[in-house]
Amino acid sequence: MTFTVAVAGASGYAGGEMLRLLLAHPEARIGALTAHSNAGTRLGEHAPHLRSLADRVLEKTDVDALAGHDVVVLALPHGASGAVAAELAARGDDAIVVDLGADHRLVDPQAWEEFYGTPHAGTWPYGLPELLTAGETVAAGQRAHLAGATRIAVPGCNVSAVTLGLQPGVAAGLIDPVDVVAVLANGYSGAGRSLKTHLLAAEGLGAAQPYAVGGSHRHIPEIAQNLRSAGAADVTLSFTPTLVPMARGILATATARLVEGADPAAVRAAWAHTYADEPFVHLLPEGQWPTTASTLGANTALVQVAVDARAGRVVTVTAIDNLVKGTAGGALQSLNIALGLPETLGLPLDGVAP
Hints:
By secondary structure, the chain is α/β, with parallel strands linked by helices. The protein contains 10 helices and 13 strands. The strands form 2 sheets. Strands 8-9-7-10-13-12-11 form a 7-stranded mixed beta sheet. Strands 3-2-1-4-5-6 form a 6-stranded parallel beta sheet, with helices on both faces.
């Protein structure tokens, strides 16, 4: 089944990565490419690696350009996609809309307003196929909510990494979700393409710098929402991201207190059971730890889990490419499910090395 795709925000990192993956998808046909400040320029000026689309001229992002496609991907700043999606709906356009931004991820309007400061645009089916949903089988889970969906909210990249690391322990009742600590090493592409002083090479090369410290990061309510989906009654999360000098990738170390009496063998068995049949999430052999380099360019999440007996905590480490499994790859994986196509179609499993 061939489908046409328009991409809004095509000159940004997320939009460019979406295009790279769509170009390798056997059923996708690229339609309109739009941008805001870069409208009227050629895509090759902003994404020279996309040679097959280099001469395409970016149109202004409006519903006239986006309408009439089978799929519309919104790779727009947080807070911008809600209005565009509403305009498409008002025109009666029946495209599947995939939002790479945050506008439609959260269920709780109050949480949105607290962390984003604008009115909530509504909640869409959540684009993390591996998300565990309490009371449903591992095989079905979130996939049942994505099948046939016409709206998809793609998770935050940090959210995917932390959720995949911790959710097996929550679902199995092996960790205490009211004592969760997550520290992440993040590549600079996760901050987007905007020109900011702290993102300059002179500031970032050879340095590591934390940001959104002290419970202010916007991904916190989304992670808590996902852990509640997996079965947590309540969640308390200390979340600290750190920019490190790499272009892309996330290494998320998340720990939680081990439930009293839980056996270390049961811990590993829970993670192994959860991800045994997942095509893109892999529990590594004991003693082998994830690296961001191993996921570069792939829609793959590498996970490891261990028990720190002295501290009484479970330690998980998850590596993903923030632009692939963390954004565009997760989006295309969810879109495949929505369209009834094989989930893995057009998605790279293997990374690039060195």
